[in-house]
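Support request from a user on the community tier.

User writes: "When I paste my structure tokens into the form, the page sometimes reloads and wipes my input. The last time it worked, I copied everything first. Here is what I submitted, just in case something in the input itself triggers the reload:"
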């Protein structure tokens, strides 16, 4: 079995402009050019990116934030200094709202029975569009092209109920290691939640990712507890927290 922990460390190290060995322990500060460019799938760069695991903290910052980073170094020298994470202090220091996400690492495949789950082809745009509109998202320029890309990869999988998609997987473009990793994204219509549909769709998407010899990735907002629970139920375990400061 592939070393999913090692692959996931490599992925987030690429995010940070770091080295996967930095996750071995301690605190590492890195002034990275990655903080000056938007990561694929994100409209703006993140001048501050912090990844905190149980053993390590990696602080990646833009050159424009060097002064704030130097002030951080005066107070936050050990992993214990970040526990609990000083979110309010850092938001005041960097003068912006920091987003917090929970990152997971794939541990093992958990079989999930699936019924009426289909992989959409490039000819199934109407199914995807109807689902998108049902979520309250209007059709936009480039939506058809986006759908064709994820459908061509085989990662757009839908749970069908009464002839319509009620839960669907979307896979964002990976900013790093696209040949090694693929993140799983799931959306379910509100009236069809808590029926196990998202778990069926996500499981099918994970199987496809594994068949492509890639490492599944899962990341969710800190307050998206339903996503956390779903990840654990599918064989993921906690990897760390990712803190992102969007550019103004």
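"...and here is what came back when it finally went through:"
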């Amino acid at each position: 079995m592939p070393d999913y922990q090692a692959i996931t460390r490599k992925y987030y190290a690429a995010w940070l402009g770091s080295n996967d060995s930095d996750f071995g322990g301690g605190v590492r500060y890195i002034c990275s050019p990655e903080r000056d460019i938007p990561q694929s799938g994100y409209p703006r760069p993140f001048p501050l990116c912090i990844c905190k695991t149980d053993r390590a903290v990696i602080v990646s910052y833009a050159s424009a934030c060097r002064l704030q980073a130097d002030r951080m170094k005066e107070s936050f020298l050990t992993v214990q200094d970040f526990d609990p994470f000083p979110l309010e202090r850092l938001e005041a220091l960097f003068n912006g709202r920091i987003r917090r996400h929970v990152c997971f690492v794939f541990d093992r495949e958990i079989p999930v029975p699936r019924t009426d789950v289909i992989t959409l082809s490039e000819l199934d745009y109407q199914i995807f569009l109807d689902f998108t509109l049902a979520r309250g998202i209007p059709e936009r320029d480039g939506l058809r092209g986006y759908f064709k890309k994820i459908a061509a990869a085989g990662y757009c999988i839908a749970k069908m109920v009464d002839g319509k998609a009620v839960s669907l997987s979307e896979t964002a473009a990976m900013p790093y290691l696209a040949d090694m990793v693929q993140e799983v994204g799931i959306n379910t219509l509100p009236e069809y939640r808590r029926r196990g549909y998202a778990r069926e769709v996500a499981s099918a998407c994970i199987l496809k990712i594994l068949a492509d010899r890639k490492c599944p990735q899962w990341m969710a907002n800190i307050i998206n507890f339903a996503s956390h629970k779903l990840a654990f139920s599918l064989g993921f375990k906690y990897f760390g927290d990712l803190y992102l400061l969007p550019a103004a």
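Agent notes: The reload is a front-end session timeout and is unrelated to the input. The first helix runs from residue 4 to 16. The chain is about 30% helix and 25% strand. Escalated to web team.
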